[in-house]
Every structure is written in structure tokens, then in C-alpha cells.
Amino acid sequence: MQIYSDILMDDIHLLDSESKRLLGPSSFTDEKTVRELNKIGTGIFFGGFDDAMFTASTTYDRSLEISSDGRINYQNAITSYPLFSFPEKGFVKEKSRNPNYPSFIAPYIHEYNHFIGFALQNHPLVVAEGILSNIINGDDFPAKLVNKRGNLKLKFKKTTRERRDFAEDMLALLGTMGIFDEAIALRLEDTVLSRLGYDTSKDAVMNEMKKNPAGRLFFSYPIHELARKIKNCHRITFNYQVGNNFIQDFAKIDVVKENIEKLLL
Q1: Which domain holds residue 50?
Q2: In contact, 57 and 1? CB cutoff 8 Å
């Protein structure tokens, strides 16, 4: 924890307390079980059954609606439960990503970094992603989300131009939030692995993220500013009003974070 303490400084105490409060044996399961749990709530899945992953099973009143301008119509609280999955093949895939990495621990580092964002943020990005994913995958959404090797595309049903625009805005918003969430995890991973003595300069995933206009922000921040930037992700400013409306309204919702044991009772 010393490396994380150096990175997060005073916020290491918040991370420590939230880890103890939110994580238990049931928080670590297989992805199929995670998918079953998310039938109770909602979550987001871009990977396959072979991938190590962190997600949050999120429950809320189904009256939640997002208007065409990105405004969220919702007055009640949202409850979210963090979950991890570490299938054996995920460690093999990590080794193929960079043979120099410690495959026995690197997946844990990366997914725990996603949890750090969840723990430090009052309005976690992964929860917003789950809500957007649920809207996009809903029966009344004007398009079907197609995942082609990690590239998300919309296959439109017969609909109006306004509904097409709404669908495209929702996907763009989901994509940007996903990039921020992944950039946070990769920046932390870069710092942790570097301090452990591993060379990350040839990591294709990290280097690709550094080229992305949204992703490279987190690689540009000085390390002592990183915790503050992670915590304040709900203050993201987008270059389109739909995104700004959504994130502003999401920041007004009460997000309650709980141990998955409470969902299973």
C-alpha cells in the first residue's frame, strides 16, 4: 500500500476505510455470476468471459429517464455494489499484453485501480456508465448496441432523426466516460508498475490511451494532483451540451455505495 499512499496521499485513508467497508468474500466472483447479479440491478460489460474485470451492480427506481437533451429525471437514491471477476484466462491475456509484466498480480492492480475511482468518487463514473448502458440496452431505445471487437456501434431501428441524434449522443457520452474510467486505471497502473521496477514505455494499451484527447488528460496531471482529479470526475466538462446536462444532473443524485452482501440478503 505504500505506493498507493505516495500517490493518493491523504486520500489513502478514505480508500482504506472504503475497501474495508465495501469489499468482502462475495465481492470476488466469476463473470457469469456478475452478469446474474446485474439482472437485479444494472452494470456495464465490454469484455468477454476471459477478461478480468471490475464493475458495479447498481439498483435504482426504473422511473429514471433521460431526456433528449441529456437531462436526468430522477429524485430517489441509487445504490451501487462493487464486484470483481478474475478468470484464469485473464492472467494469460495480461501476460500477452506485455511479457515483462508480473501476470500473477498485474490484473489485480488494474482492476483495483478501477475500484479506487469508485471508492474516491461520490458519483462514480462506473455508475454513470451502468445507467447509460442500461438506457442504451433498453427495449425502447431506437438502436441496438453492437460490440465488434471492443468497438461499439449502433444498429438503428426505424425511428426519427431526433431519436437517432439522442442515441448517438448517449453512445458518445458512454464512450467518453468509459475512456476517463479506463485512463484513471491505466495511469495508476503505469505509476504502480513503474515503481515496482517494470518498464511500461512499450505498453501498447497505455500508449494508445495517451493519444486519446480525453484519456491523455490523466497522464498529463502531476502525480500529486491525481487523487483530486479522480475524485472530481463528476465535474467533467464536455464539448456538447447533452453531456454537460447529463453529468450535472447525475452529480445531484444521491449515490449510496454498499457491500454486495446487502444485495444478496
Answers
A1: 2-264
A2: no
